[in-house]
Structures are given as structure tokens and as C-alpha cells.
Amino acid sequence: MEQRLYTVAQTRAIEQAAYTNLPAGELMQRAGRAAAGFALELLGDSRALPVLVLAGPGNNGGDALEAAANLADAGVDATVLHLPGRADASTATAAAYERARSGSVGWIDMLPPDAQWGLVIDGLFGIGLARPLDGEYRDLVESLKAVRCPILALDVPSGLDADTGEVIGPDGVAVCATHTITFLGNKPGLHTADGRDHAGQVRVDMLGVDDAMLPRAPASTGHVALFASHLAPRRHNSHKGSFGDVAVVGGAHGMAGAPVLAARGALFAGAGRVFVAALGSPPGYDSVQPEIMFRQADDFDFFGRTLVIGPGMGDSAGAIRLLAKALDSDSPLVLDADALNLIGASPDLQSRLAQRAAPSILTPHPLEGARLLGMTAAVVQADRLEAAREMALRSNATVILKGSGSVVARPDGEVVINPTGNAALATAGSGDVLAGICGALLAQGWPAWEAAIGGAWMHGAAADELVQDGVGPIGLTAGELPAAVRKVLNRLVREHAAH
Hints:
It is a single chain. The strands form two sheets. Strands 8-17-16-15-14-13-12-9-10-11 form a ten-stranded mixed beta sheet, sandwiched between helices. It is elongated. The longest helix has 21 residues, at 448-468. The chain contains 16 helices and 17 strands. It has 499 residues and is of the alpha/beta class. The two termini are 16 Å apart. The chain folds into two domains: 8-219, 3-Layer(aba) Sandwich (Rossmann fold); 224-498, CATH 3.40.1190.20. Helix content is 38%, strand content 14%. Strand 15 and strand 16 form a beta hairpin.
């Protein structure tokens, strides 16, 4: 389901507001009980095995100590490795330490080399960490790579930036958790960049805080509800003209495959007619999908059609002229690949894009996004949400910044992190298919925002279902995605109609 995503600053504000209405230490005690409850679920039939609890110097460590005490009270062999740091602990953390010390919790100073654990709880550092892990903390996190049991992170895996999803530091390390229980609201960093690899399955526990205390969050996770109003069953009395024309503009010499993949994506996502307007010599037909029609781009009429421009387009003078013509048109646009690179290199094309009144969707990967913003891909990846927001604002368009946890942004600053998809999508041509899907949804009358969210969601869900069926992730090809997208889309329409 859709969940709002809160920054570290917003989470701190929620926490402070809750403190004013609760007894001292109550929030930490609730976090400890929630963590222990989740730990018991994860242990399942393995409760005879000991649980290792890593407790750091701050309030995250206090949450871990409370969890250890609760697990011990439940009859679990809970063993704490405590790294208290040099600063004085908060009152709540000190109380949690005394509670854990007074019970049956075990204590160790270092990890035994051959210990068998049923679960490891990471309570080293939470959302406040601002520096790379070093010294004994880094060594401890590195040693967890050899652990062969579930790892439950409290609030955020230690070493991961809760806002951006980046591992902190250029040579930083972070806990690779199988599960994360995060408190007082979901965090964007758990769902994008390195977050998906380090957070595992995420559970949110609000610790009993009333929803009325939550601020508005301009970010959320993607969900079908965000585009469900456009999942309309098709009327029997309809025809191909009812569902729009998509023209994929691209395919310079030697790059004919990219627009064909985009065209297939558009065809299987429901466009009524699909064209490829090729800059090079167009093939006579697509032997796999002969329904796709091929034309020369130079004399192709853009009027009344949704354009997907950029796949395999190249950077010739002819490509620039066609792109300028498309930007000046009233056609809904999906801009991908070479179109983005050309725009990034031309202030004139950037101005034409920003002045458009018709819907525009940009689908950059991080390097293309970096060219649009005049920075490096590393800077884009360091804060994917802000990079996507800036692209959307500058271009006056909806942006899908692709990658793990693709970020969909619009000019007013609203962002959605797409939760679907997997490593199978890290293959040539998958982005072309996504562009075609978005073009098909625009052609069928979807607004740009919903088309981008829905296109990204279905594209990722198709890859998820293929992997579940044993196709990939290794070796899955972009050409296998369109039919899987069709299956996902039709299922969603049926489910929405049933409700």
C-alpha cells in the first residue's frame, strides 16, 4: 500500500511532538516492544537459538536494549554486544540499559567466531548518523557479512542515510538487513539507491502516535491507488482510434532495436496504433510484431499523436531538428535516451521543453539526469529525490529517474518512489520499453503524473512476475517485458472493475 515518506527532520519533529504527551522513556519502550515482537515473528520455530543484539551509543542503542530485555522476558536467549561510545547516554537509553542489565540478558564484548545465531538485531545507529562508520563499528558491520541468519535493523540499517538511501561515505559500509522495522513513519532512504539492498523487507510501526500529529510529506511510495482511477475497462463499442496513436521517433543507422522495443512496449500497453518514425532506413516490418508500422521520420506527421522520442535517435543535425519540432508541438511527449542528452547539451532545447503546455514525461537514467542538471551521476545518486525534483522543476515536466527505487517527480515537488522491479531490469532496452508504456498510457488519455507512476509500477511488476515464474533475473531480456506488462495491466483493470 502507499505510505508517506518522512525525512529525518520530519521524523524528529514527530518524535518531539510525541514526547510532549508521553511519559519519559515511553517511546523507547514502545519501540523495544515493537522490535521484540517482530523479532519473535522472524525467529518462528528457531527460538531455541540465541539472538544477538547490537546496541550502539545513542537512542537507537536504547531501542535495541529495550528489545533485548523484552526478548529475555519472553524466554529467548538474548545476548547484547554493547558499544556505548564516549558521550553520556540519554536518560531513556540509560534506563533501558539498567533494565536490560537487571534481567536475564547475556553480555559479550566481542563476537565469538563460530557462534550460531537465530537472529541479529542491528541497533548500532539510527536516523541521526551523519558520518561513515569507522573503527570498531565498521569492523562489526563487516563481520555481519558472514552471518547466516535474518538481520533485523531498527529504524534504518546502520550506515545508511535515511533521507537519500546512500551508504554514508565514499568508501562507507552499512548493515545489509533482511528486515527493517522503522518507527514514526517510513523513510525514503529505505526504498531507493542502496536502500533496497540494505533494508530488506520494511515494516513501519507508528508507536501509537496519532496520525493527526503527522506533518504533510511530499513523498510517498508508489501504489496502484495512485493511478487506479484510470484503470477503466474497455467499452465494447470501441475501435483502434479510441486508444490513441503512439509514434516512436528514433532509430538512426545502427540503432533500430531501441525504437522497436519502445514500440512493442506501447503496443502491449494498449495503444490503438503504433508507429516507428525512423531517422535511418526503416525496416519493412517487425517480424515479431508486424502490427507496428514504420515510416521515415523526416516527413512523418506528428499531429494528433503521442510521441516517444529519443530511443536510438543519435545526435545528428536531423535528430536535433526533429526534437525541436516535437518540443514545439502540441503532442504529448515521452523523452528518453538521446533526446535527453540533446536537451542537456542545448539551452535552446531546454527552454522549449520548459515552455511546453502539452504533457511531457522524461525518463532519464542517472547519467542522463546528470547531463540535464549539469552535474555528475554520482551527485545525482547521492540524493535521488532532490535530483528528480530539480529536473521536474527545470523542465516543467514529470520525471522518472530510473534506478533501484525509481523516483517519479513533478514540478511542485511531489515525489513517488516506485516499489516494484528488481535487478532483472538492469538490461539493455528495458528503459525503451518503459518509455513505450508511458507513451501508450498518455495516448489513452492518462495524465502525465498517473501515466508515469502507473508506467513505472507496471514495468517493475512485470519484471517481478517474470522472476517469480523463473524467468530471470539473470538473463531476462527487454523483449520479454511487453507481454508481461500486458498481463499486469489487464489484471489491474479486472481487479479495479471488481471493486
